Amino acid sequence: METLRDVLDAAAAGAFPVADGGTTVLPQPSPRDAGVMAFTGHAVVFTDEDPAWVREALRGTDCDPLAAAMNPRFLTALMDRTGRRAETVDAVLVAGPLPGEPPLALREVTDPDHPRIAYAHTRRDEVRAWTAGGGVLTLGRGVAGRLEVSVEVDEGCARGPAGRHRGLGRLLVTAARQLAGEPLWAQVAPGNARSMRAFQAAGYRPVGAELLLQRKMPVCPSE
């Protein structure tokens, strides 16, 4: 049986689902990870919900069938059905590993209470993080065990004299490819044009779009 990891590994190698206008429904790769991925002319819904319900909900979405899996009405129905929440639809990019040493000095952060590490642990496993020149780079195992990268750059440190951008984000995501040793995935909000340009300049290529459904955190009773 095909798994989501099979789909991702094929996409990383440049082999995408057939652009037939269809939707593939797959089981969740883990209790944490559920959501929707859209490729060119094909969507993948990964959830432990009944596939028959998924297909019925897609048919009932009042839009072009090609857009149904990412339509807000379908996504809302899926969140209501699963009791999960979501943040935003991200562009998904992937890049292969690079040889050589990172283009800037990195200092690994081991403090589990570091804000960026603590945040990454809510979404990924095997998290590692490094800092360099006002930026933070994290790697971790995310959806279906794929290796994912994220960066955060302090705006004041990302600019040189006269406000000229020094390209710290691009250097960090390039360094990530040299640390990876395998295909490396990134999720970028489409509106974050600066981040999108940095990833593309570092050789990451867009492969699709993705919405992850996150488990709702339990509400602690007030004391």
Commentary on this structure:
The chain has 223 residues and is of the alpha+beta class. The chain contains six helices and eleven strands. It has helices spanning 4-12, 51-59, 72-82, 115-121, 168-180, 193-201; strands at residues 23-26, 34-39, 42-46, 84-85, 90-95, 107-109, 125-132, 135-141, 147-153, 184-188, 205-215. Strands 1, 2, 3, 4, 5, 6, 7, 8, 9, 10 and 11 form an eleven-stranded mixed β-sheet that branches. A hairpin with a 2-residue loop joins strand 2 (34-39) and strand 3. Helix 5 crosses helix 6. The longest helix is centred in the last third of the chain and has 13 residues, at 168-180. The protein is globular and about 50 Å long. 35% of the residues are buried.
Q: How many separate helices? A: 6
Low-confidence stretches: 160-165, 219-223
**Gap between N and C termini:** 49 Å
Please state roughly what percent of the residues sit in beta strands, choosing from under 5%, 5-15%, 15-25%, 25-35%, 35-45% or over 45%: 25-35%
Mean pLDDT: 91
